[in-house]
Design goal:
There is one protein chain. Helix 5 (141-162) crosses helix 6 and helix 7 (200-213) crosses helix 8 (230-241). Strands 3-2-1-4-5-10-11 form a seven-stranded mixed β-sheet, sandwiched between helices. Strands 7-8-6-9 form a four-stranded parallel β-sheet, with helices on both faces. The chain folds into two domains: 5-140 and 259-304, Rossmann fold; 143-256, Rossmann fold. The chain is elongated and about 70 Å long. The protein is α/β, with parallel strands linked by helices. The model has no long low-confidence stretch (mean pLDDT 96). Helices cover 43% and strands 18% of the residues. Helix 7 links the parallel strand 7 and strand 8 (219-224).
Length: 322
């Protein structure tokens, strides 16, 4: 079959494993005779024609690197009619048949503007928040959780040495997935997330008091950044329990670093799946994980899914945090 050119871009927040996905896309596509163009800085690169031809060697030695060699940004201009038309015009001039978009829900939503103008798209979920609702997992999530866990393990050493309570803020503006999985991994006394209303006295103070009576002397409280309460809750814990309490905001350390084996493997599988869809003439899909299998979902259907949060696991985590 005769294939047109495929373009690949990374959009929105960077996620560890993006480079591994780009690598698998480029290498499999080229072996199948598909020309691959790299787009720098997301949808903005389509508008500004910041585009270059990729080769097998372009993606050498990037599988272990965090960030993205294609760079990324959020492009408000792309969401204007004028910006969209510039991007579409450049795609057509370069004979781009399909754009492979690596990013989160906002990036996936952006792809629909290209699709409505006759440009095919395939989307791959890459977001540390793991908040692409149609997929059970996204590239970058495992690395972010492991990074947070590693940092908190170090914080615990100091908390234990001084009999302190450490309140740690992890990333997640609207989603508590990182907080939940990290909290389980570090054995947090309390996990506070946007999806679950909480009572400070009952769920934090009384929990600390109870575990103190059971012999515990130091405590870890995990807070999702979207709650915007770390300063207040740190002060309140100290005042109500008499325990020296310190706050730590992990911040962007969770975005960076070498991707875990799990994220590298997921990126490789999703990247190859994207190329296979294109090879078979299947377009406008979001590649997803369902019951640990790689599948594809129509983009419109994917965007209709409601965000998922594992409330059962959250409840179990609270039961064992004693």
């Amino acid at each position: 079959m005769n294939f047109k050119t495929v373009a690949v871009l990374t959009s929105g927040g960077d996620a560890p494993g993006m480079n591994a996905a780009v690598r698998s896309i480029v290498r499999l596509a080229i072996t199948k005779g598909i020309r691959v163009l790299g787009v720098r800085r997301g949808y903005g690169g389509l508008i500004n024609k910041d585009i270059f031809e990729m080769s097998i060697r372009t993606v050498s030695d990037i599988i272990e690197r965090g960030g993205t060699i294609l760079y990324t940004t959020r492009s408000p201009e792309f969401y204007t009619d004028e910006g969209t038309q510039k991007a579409v015009k450049n795609c057509k001039e370069l004979n781009i048949d399909t754009v492979i978009v690596l990013g989160g829900e906002g990036s996936i939503r952006g792809s629909t503007k290209l699709i409505k103008n006759g440009i095919n798209c395939i989307c791959i979920p890459c977001t540390i928040d793991n908040d692409v609702a149609c997929s059970e997992n996204s590239i970058g999530f495992d690395t972010a959780v492991n990074t947070a866990m590693s940092m908190i393990d170090r914080i615990r050493d100091t908390a234990q040495a001084h009999d302190r309570c450490s309140v740690v803020e992890v990333m997640g503006k609207k989603c508590g997935n990182i907080a939940l999985q990290t909290g389980i991994a570090v054995g947090a006394t309390a996990i506070l997330v946007p999806e679950c209303p909480f009572d400070f006295q009952r769920d934090v103070v009384e929990k600390i008091n109870f575990t103190q009576k059971m012999g515990k002397k130091h405590f870890i409280i995990i807070v999702a950044e979207g709650l915007k309460i770390i300063s207040k809750i740190t002060k309140d814990i100290s005042e109500k329990t008499g325990i020296e309490t310190r706050a730590t905001i992990l911040g962007y350390v969770q975005r960076g670093g070498s991707p875990t084996a799990a994220d590298r493997a997921l990126a490789g599988k999703m990247g190859c799946y994207a190329v296979e869809l294109i090879e078979n003439g299947i377009y406008n899909k979001v590649i997803s994980v369902k019951k640990n299998q790689i599948v594809d979902v129509d983009i419109d259907e994917a965007l209709s899914y409601k965000a998922h949060f594992d409330f059962d696991t959250y409840d179990k985590a609270l039961e064992i945090s004693i």
